[in-house]
Every structure is written in C-alpha cells, then in structure tokens.
C-alpha cells in the first residue's frame, strides 16, 4: 500500500519544482516518462543497478544527460519508479484472483496464473524489482511496502481462508509457506525466456499444480480423486 | 563439473606467474586467501558486485590495495573464486543425499535438508552465487557449469528415479520441476535471517514437506496415509 508520502508525490520523479527554461509548466509527458523508465529498466537489467550510470540511461533513451534531469533527479529515482510502478501494477493484477468467488483453492490457482502472467509480461521491471529492491534507501523501501507487504498479505489471506475452509492443510506455517510459494513463482525470472519450450499458460498450470498439491488438505486431495488429478485440474 | 581448464588453474587467482619481489615462491597462504575471499563476499553482498571497488575489498581485509594483487588480479577473480568455491562445496554437500540407499522420496528429503543446511551455513557466498552469477564473463560461467549444471542434474536424476519407482507423479515435467524446486529453496536467501523464528531443522522440514507433496504420486500419498502425513513424515 503506498504511504501518503508517496501519494503526495514526494518521490521527486516528475516533480520539478521550477520548470526549466523553455519547457512547458505542466510537467513531463507521462508516456515519454514511462518510455524512459522502461529504457532505464533495460539498462539496469543488463548492467546491474550499481553498474549503471545516468549517462548509460541517457544514451539508451537517446537524450542528453542534462535533458534527463527534466524527468528525474537521480539514478535512485529511476529505480524507485521502476519498482513502485511494477509493484503497484502487480497488486492490481492479482486483485481479481483475491476477490474471486469460490473456495481458496480456486483463488490460489487464479492467483498463481495472475502472478505468473504478470511476471512474464513485465519480465524486465519485475526482475529489477526482485534483484534491486535492497538498493533503494530504507525510506524508499518503506514507501513501497508501507503497512507491510500487501502482496504477501494477499497470499497469506488466501492460505488462511483455505485452512478455515478445510481445503489447505491446517498445520502448514502460513507465513513461511507464503514466502516459499512466492519464492518459487518468482524464480522464473532466473530461467524463463520468452518463446521458450513452455507456453505461459502451461508454465502457470505447472506452477499451480505444484503449489496446490504442496499444501492441499487430505479431504481436498481425496475429493479431487488423488494428488495427480488435483495437480492437473483446471 | 569443473572443466579441465579450471583444474589446470587458469582462473588466475593464486596463480602468480612471476612471484613479486620479497615474496616466497610458493604462492599465497590458502587460509589467508579464503579469509580475503570471505571478506570480498561480505562487501559484494552489502554493496553489490558492481558497486564494489577493489579498494573496498582491500579496506575490508585491512590490506593495501597493492598487496591484494598478490592474491588476485581483478575484481572478477574474486567473484569467480567466491562462486566457484561455494558451488563446488554445495555439490559436495548434496552428494550423500544423491547416493543414499532408499527410494527417491527419501533421497529428495535428504537433498532438501542438505541444500537448506548448506545454504544457511554459507549464506553470504551462497547469496552472491545466486545474485551475481550473471556478472561473470561467459567463459567463467561456462567454467563453473561446464557439461551442464551438475547441481540441477543431480536433482533431475532424483526426480526421474522417483518417477520410475512410482513415488513421484509420472506426468510432472522434470526439467521445469527441478528449476521450480531449486527456486523455492533458494528463495530463503531473500528472507532467512539467522536466529529467526524457524530453526534450520524446522525450515528444512517445512521445505521438504512442500516439495515432496508437490510431486508425490497417488500411490506414495496413499501409502503414507494422506498428504498431511506425507508432508510431516521424517
């Protein structure tokens, strides 16, 4: 959940106090800003955040370094915007799964599909978010995960619901399991390549099969007709 | 498996062609070298590989930068040594699990315990290996995973054995599943803290429970008396 500090726009990006000479007063064009952020993400992915200079970014966008300062104040502002935008968008993408009608098993399956689909579609920014989060200042990190990590909280909520409903093993450690599930899904950033052997749908189905059988209760497995059937149910 | 290039010592580290003036000819002290490598790993973890200078490393070990060149030729040599050493040691640590008498289910459980135990015990170097592997040159990467990734191959071997034995679901995609399991286990580097809530033993048991039920066959689940019993069997 973004803190009020974030929503009041103190991130510094696109918040130019005094417009530079010859520039319109209404601030940077949002589309151009997103293009620049995407370009920065590509450079960060290739060179690593610490190995990237603002010059590398301005070269990648084909702008003079000075002009870049119209959009951003520092390299960390880029990292913050990349991570904040992808984190917030990921949260939006899982919302339908969280709010889905049906038991927690159905919602967890939908969550896995939404998460994997989002990660693959936003692979560069998503990977940066995982790899370089620690490079943000403590204040910036807190700005993104203020009030606790909303993403993890959503997953923990589904797991707890499922325990109450009896579809997930009542004895699994929910906090640990939520981290382990997200860790498993996120590991795709290390080996997934677009146009690889597995389609995105198949990838998500494979993940969902593993995740669901790893925590399903005895009765959920029984009513599915065994773990192999549960693993492949859609 | 290390390539012959690696075993012939062309990594450059500790391989000083012409001993420097006043130095004994027999090369650097292995213990001191390991200390320096460990210190470098700590600095890499904190600052990121790209954000670390050789000066940072020499400061951390309390040596003059010039003296460091007795042990190492470049920053990448440090990264290579950290990763090569921890990768080879991890391979050694899982060997007993791979060679264990018993069915693949028993061996997979032992593999998870060995892997988690090793990762926790070597957390800094293990984390560097995961985070900064891509920062090595293609030649260096190949030197570590020559002939394919031996670690992943060992895990795939256990999975295939288990399919033949009928304890693992014959329809799971072995290549995908091996990556997903390792990804799940390795995600502990993102949140595990020594002296945290979970003991290492409990952590490994929790992981083993998820991993085994995620791929167990119908008959393995049945003979264990249900997924919840299988999840908690030792």
SSE topology sketch:
2 copies of one chain form a homodimer.
Chain A lengths: L3 H4 L22 H18 L6 H8 L3 H4 L6 H25 L4 H18 L1 H10 L5 H7 L5 H16 L8 H13 L1 H4 L8 H16 L2 H7 L2 H6 L2
Helix pairs in contact in A: 2-3, 2-5, 2-7, 5-6, 5-7, 5-9, 6-9, 6-12, 9-10
Protein name (chains A, B): TetR family transcriptional regulator
Keywords (chains A, B): DNA-binding, Repressor, Transcription, Transcription regulation
GO molecular function, one term (chains A, B): DNA-binding transcription factor activity
The major β-sheet of chain A equals: none
The figure for the number of domains of chain A is 2
The CATH topology of the largest domain in chain A, please? Tetracycline Repressor, domain 2
Oligomer class = homodimer
The low-confidence runs of chain A, each spanning 5 or more residues with pLDDT under 50, are 1-20
Q: In percent, how helical is the residue content of chain A?
A: 55-70%
Count of DSSP strands of chain A:
0
CATH uppermost class of the largest domain in chain A:
Mainly Alpha
Tell me the number of helical segments of chain A per DSSP (H or I, 4 or more residues long).
14
Describe the global form of chain A. Answer: elongated
